[in-house]
Structures are given as structure tokens and as C-alpha cells.
Amino acid sequence: MGAIPGRAADPDKQEEQESFRQRELEPRLAEAREGKRVMLFMDAAHFVHGAFLGMVWCFARVFIPSPSGRKRFNVLGALNAVSKEVLTLTNETYINAQSVCLLLLQIVLYYGSKPITIVLDNARYQKCALVQCFAADLGIELLFLPSYSPQLNLIERYWRFLRKKCLYSRFYPDFKKFRTAIQRCITFAPYEYPDDLESLLTWKFQSFKKVHISAA
To answer: What is the pTM of this model?
Structure first.
């Protein structure tokens, strides 16, 4: 079984997603491949300091200790669709519009004068007037995804990969070690797992037009 956002099963929503992929996403990705544009996928991940349960083959059920889950490490990331590198802004409180603006500034300073497009979802702190005006002042194009379309955001795959590599079935007794493990994985993933990332972060996006969707 696989899960999709509820309204993604609607034929009209599927058509909207396909149109966005063909008319908006793929032409810009083609320009990024040719070096004419920087193409980034942005999203935030909120890592709660608790147990991330994985699966192991064993004869008896295995348990791991779990911290209290009272602290979390927030990572706002922008994934380069071509190089697979990730620029991040992190904190231990919450991500807001000011956080997004700080990352936009970091992106411009890093990539310079090339045209920049950032694909992102419709979270309020990303689509608010402050962020849109700041992006326009910096010369950044914000390309907002259709609603209920997480499968069109490459960085969603990256967050799942990150959890698998450094969090699933692992116990970090204190928050500092937990945070350091995540930061280290983000920093070194392009060097330690280049083949995995190349295979995972392809530009083939899931379509729900011809999948079997259970009615119950």
C-alpha cells in the first residue's frame, strides 16, 4: 500500500499536476541541465528527538530506547536539482517567514547572478507577501506547487533518505548528538552516497493518473 494526499485522487487535481509538470517544471529543469538556470527545491523538515522506528529481520521483536520527544531540530533546506547539494537554515524553535528570507539571501550569495528558480509548497510562511516581495527584490523566481503535490518536490525524497541513513533504528541519548548526526549526514551525503542520491533524485515524478486507488 502507498499513501497519497486525499484530493490527489481527484481527476481534476491529477490534470493540474500533470500540466504543472509539463509546462512549468520540466522546461526549467531542462534549462538547469544546460547550466542556464539554478533549480532548487525547498521544504522544511522537523526532526523530533525521539525514536525513528525502522525494520530489521529477526526472530524476536527488537526495541530501542526513545528520548522524550520534547525537543526538535528544524531544517529548512534548498536542494539543487542538478548537483544534489543542499543549502540549509536550522534552528530549534520554529520555521517562519523570516527563516525563509534568510535562506533566500543565503541562496543568492551562494549562486550569484544566475537565474534562480525555487520550487516550494504553499505553506503560509513561504507564500506570504513578505517572502514573495523579498524574493522579487533578490531576483528569485518562486514556483509554487499545485496543492496536494508532495511527489513533485524532490527534497521530500531527500528528507526520507536522510531519516533512513542517520535516524531509523538509531538511539541518540542526548539532543546534541541527535542534531550533530543530522547535520553531518546533510554535509557529507553527496560524498558518501553519490550513487544513492543520483538514483533517488531523478527527474521522474510520480503520476497518479494510472495507479490503483482503494476506495476503502
So the answer is: 0.89
